[in-house]
Amino acid sequence: MASPGQSAAPPVFVRLAAHPLRWRLLTELARSDCRVRELVTRVDQPQNLVSYHLRLLRDGGLVTATRSSFDGRDSYYHLDLDRCAEALTGSAAALHPALRLQAAPAIPLGGERRSRHVDVLFVCTGNSARSPIAEALLRRRTAAHVAVTSAGSQPKPRLHPNTIRVLRETFDIDVADQRPRHLDTLTGRRFDHVITLCDRAREACAESGNHLRRIHWSIPDPATAGDTDQASYPAFQRTAADIDTRIRHLLPVLDATTARRFDS
């Protein structure tokens, strides 16, 4: 603790976020997982400079990186919003205890706005694990007040058994009768948000359709985590938890979309 007359060093979050380029990187990653070259284009800065500041954000625990499952030469960067919320709360409290913040609850889609649905599409390659998990969790969290669909660029014949199991055992959701859907069956339908959950599917539907907002969540396929269904089940549990966290962060974004539609 600094003595009277001395200034304590700013909290790590403040030091990291205060830099203009790092703030721009944070705001881009708050919208979607991105590759370095995409961030370079969006912030219009040299790749070596972008990579340097991404490394600082990773070292600060605000950003993580995973190898692309489609092209291992690429990595997707992801902003840890929960970690940012904790760091921001700690930064405020470091200035004065009265500024200790309480996490704001997710904004439910409700009231009159429910009559003006937001359309969300989740996409992965097989539509047998990640995208149906996301579809089920968003539908549960919004009490069906969001029109949510999932599809695959190369759909499997049926849902993965662990998809059915993890939704039933962890969230008490039954999707046993659901079947994968091909992305082509949705041609011509316009969605407010298209969210890809695997890197291969992102490339497959990168330019398809006239949709308002595209988001990417770079999530590894849990089905590849083991040689048997039993061996891969822990990966399904981790994947479902990751998706549920991302769904929770998505809710205020969807509410803002509904608010704009309601107010227009």
Write the layout of secondary structure elements.
Layout: H1 12-17, H2 20-31, E1 34-35, H3 36-43, H4 47-59, E2 63-67, E3 75-79, H5 81-95, E4 119-124, H6 130-141, E5 147-152, H7 161-171, E6 193-196, H8 199-204, E7 213-216, H9 229-263
Parallel strand pairs: 4-5, 4-6, 6-7
Antiparallel strand pairs: 1-3, 2-3
Descriptive labels:
264 residues, alpha/beta, Arc Repressor Mutant, subunit A, Rossmann fold, 12% strand
Biggest sheet, strands in spatial order? 5-4-6-7
| Protein structure class | alpha/beta
Question: What does the radius of gyration come to?
Answer: 20 Å
In total, how many beta strands?
A: 7
**Proportion in helices:** 40-55%
Number of domains: 2
The backbone outline, from C-alpha atoms, is globular
What pattern of helices and strands is seen along the backbone? HHEHHEEHEHEHEHEH
Which CATH C-level class of the largest domain is it? Answer: Alpha Beta
Q: What is the CATH homologous superfamily assignment of the largest domain?
A: Response regulator
Main beta sheet, described?
Answer: 4 strands, parallel
Question: What is the distance, rounded to the nearest whole angstrom, between the alpha carbons of the first and last residues?
Answer: 51 Å
Mean pLDDT level: 88
CATH architecture of the largest domain: 3-Layer(aba) Sandwich
Describe the overall structure.
This protein is an alpha/beta fold. The chain has helices at residues 12-17, 20-31, 36-43, 47-59, 81-95, 130-141, 161-171, 199-204, 229-263, and strands at 34-35, 63-67, 75-79, 119-124, 147-152, 193-196, 213-216. The strands form 2 sheets. It has a 4-stranded parallel β-sheet with strand order 5-4-6-7. A 3-stranded antiparallel β-sheet has the order 1-3-2. Strand 6 (193-196), helix 8 and strand 7 (213-216) form a beta-alpha-beta unit. It is globular.
